[in-house]
Amino acid sequence: MPFKKLHSHLLDCLAHQSIETPTPFQKSSIPIIKSGSNVFCFAAEGSGKTTTLILTTLQKLKCEAVGNAPRAIILVENKTKVLELYDAFIPYTQYSTLRIYASYEQLHIDVQKSEIYMGIDILITTPKTLQKLFLTNGVSISELKICSIDDAEFLSKKSDATSLIVMAESIKKCQFVIYAEKSHPQLNRLENHFMEHSKLVQK
User: Which Gene3D superfamilies match (predicted)?
Assistant: First the structure.
């Protein structure tokens, strides 16, 4: 069964990459994420979690640039993960107006602030860098529609989890989607903060 009810730009991108059929995880998770619910997504490596994250993020933003403040934030563990995910987005954004920005601790904060100020749609960063940007007025979260955490096992580190929780408390209305291979106690505790009434997809 082919992908259904996705933006025509995304269907074109999938066809260009000869991706015709969703994985079992994608078939289960994409409709639930599209519904706007907070979602925990647990599935093994190779199940299509990263492609799901990309497709649902771009679907949420209708594959077009709007305004200057980011409408999607994706949190990952470190610079390596930031750059890997940035590269994974390129086949889906290079022929659109969407502006995607890679942010990490090793890049001077003033450089990041000035480049973000020029206008972005998607921010890929780490919890600590996002908190630093926010506390120095380097990024606005007023237009945020979706926040995803990829390979969220790294949130077992208390400092990363704390940075995320602090940021989430400042976000008034936003969908959160957490991707990991399996649950762990630190992820479960997020239900007490910003993942209340969340749904679960597990494959």
Answer: P-loop containing nucleotide triphosphate hydrolases (3.40.50.300)
For 169, other C-beta atoms within 10 Å of its C-beta total 10
By residue range, what is the domain housing residue 93? 8-202
Give the bridge partners for 72, in sequence order.
122, 146
CA R_g for the chain: 16
1 domain residue, yes or no: no
Instruction: Give the residue ranges of DSSP H helices in 47-182.
Output: 49-60, 79-93, 109-117, 127-135, 158-170
Asked whether residue 131 carries a pLDDT value surpassing 80, the answer given is: yes
Tell me how long the chain is: 203
The contacts of residue 9 (CB under 8 Å, 6+ apart) are 58, 63, 95, 96
- Asked whether the beta carbons of 199 and 32 are under 8 A apart, the reply is yes
CA dihedral sign, ordered 51, 56, 58, 62? positive
DSSP codes, 8-21: HHHHHHHHHTT--S
125 DSSP β-pair partners: 75
- Residues 6-56: pLDDT tens digits? 999 999 999 999 998 999 999 999 999 999 999 999 999 999 999 999 999
CATH number at residue 50: 3.40.50.300
d(CA 66, CA 70): 9
What total of structural domains would you count in the chain? 1
Rounded to a whole number, what is the distance in angstroms from the first to the last CA of the chain? Answer: 18
